[in-house]
Design brief:
Helix content: 40-55%
Largest sheet: 7 strands, mixed
Oligomer: single chain
CATH superfamily: Vaccinia Virus protein VP39
Bound molecules: S-adenosylmethionine
Distance between the termini: 43 Å
CATH class: Alpha Beta
Number of domains: 1
Strand order of the largest sheet: 3-2-1-4-5-7-6
Structural class: alpha/beta
Number of strands: 7
């Protein structure tokens, strides 16, 4: 039987990410995870979600749980990842951090989120997941089904990518394509941030290096993650403004949208 494109996306994602999250030296060359986290935390602070007690939060493809663990410890945290090991590790890490109400599960392609979680959430998150799926509108619709009316979706994806740059991306977003999908699902966009022009500057080098196991790439990645974890958000925004003026394109978009 021939695999459909979404089956093969899933197999490639599982293969890539089970190795990725197990590695001590993760390949974090594209999009500093520290910069991404800083921007995410800036947004939840702006929307006063970071300190709100007892919110229910769902993260589609939570990775190391960086976004989920940015919420208050009284929150109910739920989400999906592709491997049992990651789900177990992140659950244990969350417990150590003092989170007690967690429901993290392994993705099951036979089931939708909506059929697995009959409850609804105050906040849903999809951060750098939709570009790994060739039909992201279906995955996004499933995610938004579990959002409460009045609830908030926080979405982040790469934009202005060139096909072939990242071999694990199966869909290439632009600012307008993400906005269009979100609006077509009936959500009202509250905020749209286009950022990370630095990756437009660095990507020709980073993507050339990613095809080889290269110590320089790891040093570059650690350096960038180290620097972005220290610099305040306003400094990162300043760098973006300068690079935009020099003609570099934003490589990442964050959308905050509300279900009416
Ligand atoms: C680039 S990582 C992002 C991780 C995390 N959300 C973050 O922003 O740090 C993409 C993650 O999506 C997961 N993933 C890919 N396809 C998925 C799917 N169909 N459902 C749930 N997770 C998926 C992968 O296992 C991987 O951990």
């Amino acid at each position: 039987m021939q695999e459909s494109s979404s089956d093969s996306d899933l197999i490639r994602n599982r293969d890539e990410y089970s190795r990725h999250w197990r590695s001590r030296f993760r390949k974090t060359w594209n999009y500093s995870s520290q910069g991404k986290l800083k921007r995410f935390r800036g947004l939840i602070q702006e929307f006063r979600l970071n300190s709100r007690a007892s919110l229910s939060v769902f993260d589609q493809g939570f990775g190391l749980g960086l976004m989920l663990f940015s919420f208050d410890k009284s929150c109910h945290l739920a989400g999906l990842e592709l491997s049992t090991e990651v789900v177990q590790e992140v659950t244990q890490f969350g417990r150590k951090q003092g989170f007690v109400d967690m429901d993290l599960r392994v993705f099951n392609e036979e089931k939708t989120i909506a059929s697995s979680w009959p409850c609804k959430f105050d906040v849903v998150i999809s951060s750098h997941v939709l570009e790994h799926i060739s039909k992201p509108e279906i995955a996004l619709r499933d995610l938004l089904t579990v959002l409460k009316p009045g609830g908030i979706a926080i979405l982040a994806v790469p934009i202005n990518e060139l096909p072939g740059e990242d071999l694990n991306h199966f869909f290439f977003f632009s600012q307008s394509s993400l906005v269009e999908i979100v609006r077509s699902e009936g959500l009202k966009i509250s905020k749209c941030v286009e950022c990370d022009c630095i990756w437009d500057l660095l990507s020709p080098l980073a993507y050339r290096l990613q095809r080889r196991s290269n110590p320089f790439l790891k040093i570059l990645s650690f350096g960038i993650n180290g620097v972005t974890s220290i610099l305040p958000l306003c400094f990162l925004q300043g760098i973006d403004a300068i690079l935009k003026r020099c003609g570099y394109k934003p490589r990442q978009i964050f959308l905050v949208a509300r279900k009416e």
